[in-house]
Amino acid sequence: MDALLHDVAAQAAEDHVPTAKDKRWARGALAKLHREFDQAPAGDRARPASTKRGVTIPPELLELDRETLLAQIEFLKKIANVNYQQSELTGLSDHDLRVTLAMLLDPERY
After folding, report:
1. Which letter, b or e, does each residue of 51-78 get, where b requires 16 or more Cβ atoms within 10 Å of its Cβ?
2. How many separate domains does the chain show?
3. What is the pLDDT of residues 36-47, one digit of tens each?
4. Do 76 and 89 touch, CB atoms closer than 8 A?
5. pTM of the prediction?
6. Mean pLDDT (whole number) for 7-21
7. Which domain holds residue 68?
8. Are 65 and 98 a contacting pair, CB within 8 Å?
9. Per the domain annotation, does 46 fall within a domain?
């Protein structure tokens, strides 16, 4: 049922032709958002993550394709009793898979 509602909503959004009233509302909402950002103290804003928290991906992992990355992660999961939070790896980017594999191969470092 959720998939059907999602499809109907997506189709309605694609078919919608904005009216002048819609455009005025959107401009007003955007202006309000900008005012709120301008009023918020800089300390309350999100900041980029520290570079120290990054994971260094070894050159040999950079050379692997997606299928090999997935296979290695699954192999480690089976033989080394490795656990990771992502139960579905299909939604991860190649970079995310490389980071995951780098962390699994060197857990003491991360």
Report:
1. eeeeeeeeeebeebeeeebbebbeebee
2. 1
3. 877 866 665 565
4. no
5. 0.46
6. 84
7. 51-105
8. no
9. no
Residue 31 falls inside a structural domain: no
In this predicted model, what pLDDT tens digit does every residue of 32-90 receive, in sequence order?
888 887 786 666 556 554 444 678 888 999 999 999 998 898 888 777 766 665 566 77
3-state class (DSSP) for residue 40:
coil
pLDDT above 70 (res 16): yes
Evaluate whether 73 touches 89 at the Cβ level (below 8 Å).
yes
* Alpha carbon 15 to its chain's center: 28
User: Residue 33 has which token pair?
Assistant: 């958002």
User: Residue 80 falls within a domain, yes or no?
Assistant: yes
What secondary structure letter does DSSP report for 92? Answer: S
State both tokens at 74.
């699954």
In a domain, 74, yes or no: yes
Three-state secondary structure call for residue 27: helix
Query: What does 63-91 look like in DSSP terms, one character per residue?
Result: T--HHHHHHHHHHHHHHS----S-S-GGG
